[in-house]
Design goal:
about 260 residues; alpha/beta; UDP-N-acetylmuramoyl-L-alanine:D-glutamate ligase; Protein-Tyrosine Phosphatase, Chain A; 2 domains; 6-stranded mixed sheet; 3-stranded parallel sheet
Length: about 260
């Protein structure tokens, strides 16, 4: 779908391999971005992190702006995490090219509260038990999200409930998923939330559980939404941060927990 677009302004944040059900190799995935860059119209502007310079530079004659990982003075954001700081730097770089003063861009970003299902708080930020939901379903996203939560709550117990999304992604990134939960104190794993377009829905979840256990001591297999809720009632206590992760319906666990907390 992205190739149907002919953007005059392109902010390219990353090209991390994903959607293996549609792109069987990393090369086929990157080819989409190559075609997009090659098809940009005259006068287009590309904004991207410096880490992507070697990828972007040879593919387009468009004006290119590459941004770093920091700015002086530092950004003040409502959003947590280094990944959101990086995204915001890209926005400021593009805004500058569009004639928007840096101070105005900074002020706008400072008041941006984020989007639904991205570190969405279901409770108060400083409640005895904090409940968060996030759409993260790729190893890189999980790492970035949990790092941000750990940075925000360095002393709290973090309990992560992860529902893998699609069998193909779960199989392809199995080893990467295993090491994605370092910033959680405990991990509870649900069954894979499959996609109707997948041809092979078979997957032995015990393999996934064992892979995570190679890197983490506290891992439980909870399988279902209801079991996750029961697990949280038993394991979450004052000082805990409960975070649900995944692109399926795992957000229901966050909703159930927060509803119970509000009623108690």
């Amino acid at each position: 779908k992205i190739l149907s677009l002919k953007p005059k302004y392109l902010l390219l944040t990353n090209i991390d391999y994903d959607h293996p059900d549609f792109y069987p190799t990393e090369e086929s995935y990157r080819a989409v971005f190559q075609k997009l860059l090659q098809s940009l119209p005259d006068g287009a502007i590309v904004v991207a992190p410096k880490a992507l310079r070697s990828f972007v530079d040879p593919l387009t004659n468009a004006k290119k702006i590459f941004f770093g990982a920091c700015i002086d003075p530092p950004l003040s954001l409502m959003l947590w995490g280094a990944h959101n700081q990086t995204n915001a730097l890209g926005v400021i770089a593009l805004a500058y090219e569009l004639g928007i003063p840096e101070e105005k861009a900074r002020a706008t970003l400072k008041n941006f509260a984020g989007t639904k299902r991205r570190m969405e708080l279901y409770t108060g930020e400083n409640d005895d038990i904090v409940v968060i939901d996030d759409y993260a379903h790729h190893p890189t996203e999980i790492q970035a999200t949990l790092f941000a939560v750990r940075e925000h709550y360095p002393e709290r117990k973090i309990i992560a409930y992860f529902q893998p999304h699609t069998y193909s992604r779960t199989k392809t990134f199995l080893e990467d998923f295993g090491s994605s939960f370092d910033d959680a104190d405990s991990v509870a794993l649900l069954d894979v939330y499959g996609s109707a377009r997948e041809k092979d829905p078979s997957f032995d979840m015990s393999i996934f559980v064992q892979q995570v256990k190679k890197h983490h001591e506290q891992v439980d297999y909870v399988a279902t939404i209801d079991n996750s809720f029961s697990h949280a009632k038993k394991n979450a206590s004052k000082g805990s941060v409960v975070i649900t992760l995944g692109a399926g319906d795992v957000w229901r666990v966050a909703q159930m927990i927060s509803t119970k907390l509000a009623a108690s």
